[in-house]
Automatic annotation (TrEMBL):
Domain of life: Bacteria
Single GO term (MF): porin activity
PANTHER family: PORIN B
Protein name (database record): Carbohydrate porin
Cellular component, GO, one term: membrane
Length: 410
């Protein structure tokens, strides 16, 4: 439950939650390099857990343009309470290397076909200390971390390849400059859990508007530009987002981000202060087989909105379904279908019309993929995507994208 509340969900794009250590070997081990003769289990029992995650997306469109994006993330978590140092204190640090070509930029798509693609880098993404207070009801976190890993992140992100469903809504960044992974910035968060199924949290981030160039290595702890404030309230239908006994698990969240810095009006260009974005998410299990514990269906929906006078893409809707164990004897595989609708600002369109230019429409993205879990540390995920009115431009052609994701944990 606490991992969920802190936003460290099982999302490949963020990839900050470690797999469980059980001291198993072969294909049953969560690590390709196994348990090192029990050493990993021994360290985990002492509060030290680490992993190295590799994710690779290879995608191609109908013009045979091929884009490959690779990412390697190393993560270390130390439970200082479990280690007998300081009760209720945890430390987390993660760094990333990534490189490749961005098919979304080539297509001019609003919803990027890959949740990984950004820029080539080798960077310290985040590090933080978190202290538990008041008998697991109050948590304070301080250090360097990204907002999108906790505020607006997709809990079912490991089941999708595209950015809005696989990581977080893309317009969260231009609307308020909320820090994203791997561009963590100095931050402070307070999280309160008044009841087992309810949490409230809020954080303040350094709102660096060009963090990957302001702090290329992630080691400068740089404060720049107006701060970003994020807040979220969540309700858990059944804590843990995992099937257990009767009833279906679910998570409902409502959140907002705000930046008090200057923003230009998208139509007139005039400067004004402050912009904000609101989002609402639903992640709900809708079916579970009593005969097969891993066979279940989950539904997800996310909607966000920001004022039309600042952001080109002022609203996005992302919905999806995933089914675990569709095929016989493949209980750990997942088939997923998703849809993303990106809407363009009416203020921008009216400005274009007055200038005699064609207005934008809306971009629609449909995705179908199948995650083939070959073992506990290796997943192969073929995907097909189809864009209607790519970039929300009715004059541009539709685009089909196909490819696959490969992910393994060392």
């Amino acid at each position: 439950m606490l991992a969920l509340l802190s936003g460290c969900c099982h999302v490949p794009a963020a990839a900050q939650e470690l797999v469980e250590v059980r001291g198993e070997s072969g294909t049953n081990s969560p690590y390709m390099l196994r348990d090192w003769g029990g050493e990993r289990t021994r360290l985990a029992n002492q509060g030290v857990a680490f992993s190295l995650l590799y994710v690779d997306d290879t995608l191609s469109n109908t013009r045979r343009d091929v884009a490959n994006w690779s990412r390697v993330r190393g993560t270390l978590d130390i439970d200082l309470g479990k280690a007998g140092v300081v009760r209720g204190l945890k430390f987390h640090i993660t760094a990333m290397w990534q490189a490749g070509s961005n098919l979304g930029a080539h297509l001019g798509a609003i919803a990027n076909p890959s949740s990984l693609a950004s820029i080539n880098l080798f960077r310290l993404d985040s590090w933080w200390f978190e202290k538990e207070l008041s008998r697991q009801k109050l948590f304070i976190r301080a250090g360097q971390f990204s907002g999108l890993d906790s505020y607006g992140v997709q809990p079912y992100g490991d089941s999708f390849i595209n950015e809005p469903l696989g990581y977080a809504m893309g317009n969260l960044i231009p609307a308020t400059y909320e820090p994203f992974s791997p561009a963590g910035t100095p931050a402070f968060e307070v999280r309160y859990v008044p009841a087992k199924r309810v949490y409230v949290k809020s954080a303040i981030f350094s709102g660096n508007r060009d963090p990957l160039h302001d702090d290329e290595t992630g080691t400068h702890f740089k404060f720049k530009d107006a701060p970003v404030i994020a807040a979220e309230v969540g309700y858990l239908v059944k804590p843990g987002l995992l099937p257990a006994g009767d009833g279906y698990a679910g998570l409902y969240t409502f959140g907002a981000t705000i930046n008090t810095g200057p923003f230009a009006n998208i139509g007139s260009g005039r400067q004004a202060r402050t912009n904000y974005l609101l989002y609402f998410t639903v992640n709900q299990q809708v079916y579970s087989s009593r005969a097969h514990a891993n066979r279940r269906m989950d539904a997800t929906a996310t909607f966000d909105w920001t004022p039309e006078d600042v952001s080109k893409t002022f609203s996005q809707l992302a919905v999806g379904l995933r089914y675990h164990g569709l095929l016989r004897h493949r209980d750990h595989d997942t088939v997923s279908v998703g849809f993303v609708h990106s809407r363009i600002s009416g203020v921008l369109n009216r400005s274009l019309s007055r200038a005699g230019l064609s207005p934008f429409g809306a971009e629609k993205l449909l995705e179908l993929n199948y995650a083939l879990r070959l073992n506990r540390w290796l997943t192969f995920q073929p995907v097909f995507q189809y864009y209607f009115d790519t970039g929300a431009d009715p004059q541009r052609r539709n685009n089909a994208v196909a490819g696959f994701r490969t992910m393994f944990v060392l």
